[in-house]
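Q: Hi! New to this. If I give you a protein sequence and the SMILES for zinc ion, can you show me the bound structure?
A: Yes, paste them in.
Q: Okay, here:
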Amino acid sequence: MQTGKMRKQRLSGNRHAGYGSQHGAAGKATEVDARAGVFRQPAMQTPVLVLNASYEPINICGARRALVLVLKGVARTEEEQGAMLHAARMRVAMPSVIRLLEYRRIPHQTRALSRKNILLRDRNACQYCNIVLTAGELTLDHVIPRSRGGLSTWENLVACCHNCNRRKGNQMLHELTDMKLLREPRPFSLHTSRHIMRMIGSADAAWRKYLYFESEVETAVVTAA
Ligand SMILES: [Zn+2]
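A: Thanks. Here is the predicted structure of the protein with zinc ion bound:
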């Protein structure tokens, strides 16, 4: 893998691909190694946010991997960490956020349909009254009741508090005037992974604008619906 290759080159003091000095022509392995020390493991392992060509966040990877993608011309740096990587003929800013140059279709992640995953998707909030409760205080509601042919699917199961569950009973939503879903239930997908990325990224100011962009769009869509 690239990672191993880069490390080997650094150790052998290869000034073309390793972490050489700006005037690495001297080529002394000791000097190169000393310079390499500037980029200790933490800098190369710093998490980097990966955006799709459309600016949608799609992944998190280590700085080393991100740098390889940038150097290969697959991605470009959108935000920098602040540290610089010095190579023989160039100085490269260590990325904090990179963006793929070509759009990649991201397949839906398939996750097991389980009570735990439904609660995770719905963030432990009753999907009718929005009250946030512990897993033990929530139940699962079939939007179309089982007694009326509703299936146990991602699209038909939502987190629900006992109050709302009781009120809804075996009725269809269109039969109730005072109850409606906060959002349309969807399969546990990238959408939810982004929520996780959002939490990881909340400490990094440079990530925020990319991570919160999506939630703003979502809010707008929900309001319009
Ligand atoms: Zn409720």
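A: The first strand starts at residue 47 and ends at 51. Let me know if you'd like me to explain how to read the tokens.
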